[in-house]
Amino acid sequence: MLHLRRISPIGCRNPIFWDAFRAFSSTTDQSSIRKAVASILDSLSLKPGGTLVLNHGDSDVGKSLIQLAKERKLQSISIIDDKPGNPETIEELKALGGDIIVPLSYTKTWYMKRLVSELSPIAGINLGEGYQATAVGKAVADGGTLVSFGKKLPTHVVYDGADRKPIEWDAFAKSKKIKVLSI
């Protein structure tokens, strides 16, 4: 079972949120995963027209998130690994309802900064570790929420180039005023 590492005000007030996590952590059944993901999206109180950013969109949970986001009229930005076969993966995710699918290397460009500034994702769902988690955290708008599923968040947020030094994850979250839920 997944363990709670940090509690945010969202989880404290909403028992549906924790029921969804228990269901998510104990199943591999697609319908159960979909139900758990739906409960989590409900607890985040995202409004139609809002934007959600996630990584590992090509996983079962990622695909469920993309489909549910489309059904709820949310725009999704999906970050996938850089690997051979990405064009096919991108087409598959777009067929499921994905709006914007980008490889991890794209998140390190100014194009991603521009995309994020235009769409202002209010929530992020982290399904990966290392730079994948950092990419989602950087994409979430100030004051947003980041949910990390059973993955350890990195200790530092690393920036490319010599002009910015790595900072601790907690200081990064505090500076962006994002709520972080790690389970």
From TrEMBL:
Task: Tell me which UniProt keywords the record has, alphabetically.
Answer: NADP, Oxidoreductase
Q: Which residues cross the membrane?
A: none
Please name the GO terms of the biological process aspect recorded for this protein, alphabetically: fatty acid metabolic process
Which superkingdom?
Eukaryota
Q: What's an example of a GO molecular-function annotation for this chain?
A: oxidoreductase activity
Concerning SUPFAM superfamilies, the annotation shows:
NAD(P)-binding Rossmann-fold domains (SSF51735)
GO cellular component term, pick one: mitochondrion
- PANTHER family found in the cross-reference section: ALCOHOL DEHYDROGENASE-LIKE C-TERMINAL DOMAIN-CONTAINING PROTEIN, ENOYL-[ACYL-CARRIER-PROTEIN] REDUCTASE, MITOCHONDRIAL
| Name the record gives this protein | Uncharacterized protein
What taxonomic lineage is listed for the species of origin? Eukaryota, Viridiplantae, Streptophyta, Embryophyta, Tracheophyta
